[in-house]
Write a structure and sequence with these properties.
single chain; alpha/beta; TIM Barrel; Immunoglobulin-like; 2 domains; seven-stranded mixed barrel; 7 helices; about 35% strand; binds zinc ion
């Protein structure tokens, strides 16, 4: 149903020993391969880390891309697709401006990451305001969703079954995403922010290890077929990511490979021309409950492995899927435009 495209499943926002993660690139790639990921995007704090040695490469069959996470008191900003090392700049507005100038993709990391002292995670929300030049948003952060949920009586339960603690993207994050997507391409991703931490409490049960987290929240992208050349394939992946041609899903709840949502023949990230015959349709590998969201409002409901929705005029449409009442899959927006 997605002629000319392949589906790449991977993880964006991964830390290694080049900053405060515990794994080297080999270990990260091995864990990614074991989780059947096609790609990982490594974003160490304030450095391109391995990206200074290799521009992009395959390790153990996994496409590895390198960006960096600008880490400021005003917030964290994941930047991909820029030459050389991350510069040292004064303030988040300067990073956002710089990213735009060099043609990089800058993504607001954990925008509403409140943190939780009980598990020693300080709050790291975005405090730099809605800067118009940011290029995308972490719509769902596994790490901060999990830390939000932990309470004294639930800590052990949530350590044993971390996925069960997740409540999905925050409404205020989705609101920002929908608002900006109405103005132009503004990709949303699901991110782990995985460090593989070995300190307590993370050491318990291997909680938050690469191996445990990679099979969970993944970002799926539709790209033209890859060539096997790391540099070329990284550019292809980044092109899809920039426009949001994809979705993110909690694949440990139900594997979402093969899912597709389209307006006519157009995928999320693309523009579709409004016509009387244009339909929004989805196909899913598993049964789910669906919500069609237009400009931040739920405008349609459905259930099952297939669903079709009528259109209510031009605008940005996305779909949310729930499995057994739990948040599962969120597509990027397809933009329906009027012929004028
Ligand atoms: Zn961060
Ligand atoms: Zn991070």
């Amino acid at each position: 149903m997605t002629a000319g495209f392949v589906e790449l499943v991977g993880s964006i926002h991964v830390h290694t020993i080049k900053s405060d993660g515990v794994g080297d690139l080999k270990r990260v790639a091995r864990a990614a391969r074991e989780a059947s990921l096609d790609y990982v995007v490594v974003t160490d704090h304030d450095t391109k880390g391995y990206g200074l040695e290799h521009e992009a490469c395959y390790v153990d069959g996994v496409l590895c891309l390198f960006g960096a996470e600008a880490t400021l008191p005003e917030g964290h900003f994941v930047v991909l697709g820029f030459p050389g090392e991350l510069p040292h700049l004064d303030g988040m507005a300067s990073y956002v401006r710089w990213a735009k100038e060099v043609g990089a993709l800058g993504i607001v990391a954990h925008p509403h990451g409140g943190g939780n002292a009980r598990v020693r995670v300080p709050g790291k929300p975005w405090r730099a305001g809605r800067l118009p030049d940011v290029g995308g948003i972490e719509a769902w952060s596994y790490m901060f969703d999990w830390t939000d949920a932990v309470r004294p009586l639930t800590t052990l339960k949530h350590m044993l079954r971390p996925d069960d603690a997740l409540s999905g993207p925050r409404p205020e994050t989705l609101a920002w995403w929908d608002e900006r997507a109405a103005e132009g391409p503004f990709p949303g991703i699901g991110a782990l922010d995985v460090h593989g931490l070995r300190t307590l409490p993370w050491r318990l049960f291997g909680l938050m290890s690469y191996e445990r987290l990679f099979p969970t929240l993944c970002t799926h992208l539709w790209t033209p077929p890859l060539t096997g050349d790391g540099r070329e394939d990284a550019a292809t992946l980044l092109d899809a990511l920039r426009i949001g041609r994809g979705f993110f899903a909690l694949d440990s709840l139900a594997c979402s490979r093969g899912f597709v949502f389209k307006a006519g023949e157009r995928l999320p990230g693309d523009n579709a021309l409004l016509s009387k015959s244009l339909k929004l349709a989805l196909e899913s590998p598993v049964e789910a409950t669906w919500q069609l969201v237009k400009g931040g409002k739920v405008v349609g409901l459905a259930e099952g492995r297939e669903a079709a929705f009528g259109l209510s005029g031009p605008g940005v449409y996305r779909v949310e899927g729930y499995v057994r009442g739990r948040p599962w899959l969120f597509t990027n927006h397809v933009r329906v435009v009027a012929d004028d």
